[in-house]
Amino acid sequence: MISRISGTLREKRENSVIINVSGISYEVFIPDVIMKVLDGSIGADGKIELVTYHYLQMDPSRGVPFLVGFLNEVEKEFFEKFITVSGVGPKAAIRALALPISVIAKAIDENNLSLLKSLPGVGERKAREIVAKLQGKVGKFGLMQDGHISELPKPKDDIQNEALDVLLQLQYKRNEAKEMVSKAISRNPDIKTSEELLNEIYKQRKLI
Hints:
- By secondary structure, the chain is of the alpha+beta class.
- It has a domain at 156-206: Helicase, Ruva Protein, domain 3 (Orthogonal Bundle).
- The chain has 9 helices and 5 strands, in the order βββαββαααααααα.
- The protein has helices at 32-35, 73-82, 90-96, 101-109, 113-117, 124-134, 156-169, 174-187, 194-206, and strands at 4-12, 16-21, 24-29, 47-58, 63-70.
- It has a 5-stranded mixed β-barrel with strand order 1-2-3-5-4.
- Helix 7 (156-169) crosses helix 9 (194-206) and helix 8 crosses helix 9.
- The longest helix is centred in the last third of the chain and has 14 residues, at 156-169.
- Residues 80-99, 114-133 form the Helix-hairpin-helix DNA-binding motif class domain.
- One of its GO terms (cellular component) is cytoplasm.
- It is found in: Cytoplasm.
- Residues 157-208 are annotated as: Domain III.
- InterPro entries: DNA_helicase_Holl-junc_RuvA_I, Hlx-hairpin-Hlx_DNA-bd_motif, NA-bd_OB-fold, RuvA, RuvA_2-like, RuvA_C.
């Protein structure tokens, strides 16, 4: 069981890092909210130490080990509680933890389904399951001073206005741009960022 890893950061990817330990390189998956502040934990010499959750994913013909990295034991403990929810495995949890842990813990405690549904991969049913399993059990995580790490999700109107501004800059007419935004939202109502909205518009245009 690998509980910590310390070495030289060789590469940062979208949701993982490559750490060299005495000539052997390990890929460590990092939740998005932790990835945003990871640079502050890298030494001037490129050294970094992470607390790790070591997991063996069983495929039909083999077991595939992988590591999930955290900056401290409290973050890891919350992750371990989060994956006790039915249907939330380690990979789903890595994706879902896109907001500060204190914010997610508070949402669970206050039955804030709207915020929980804003997490990647979490819909109405899963949000209710998270509350049912963890409400009243995550209070200490709400005390974490990590609320500055990431902004709360923007309202849908702000996301649509941002996408509209980009389309206008790309020389689309306002009425045409509004229609494109509206159709994209209708096709994918779970869109949470202007970037996702613009990607949906692009896919929509390819089908025309």
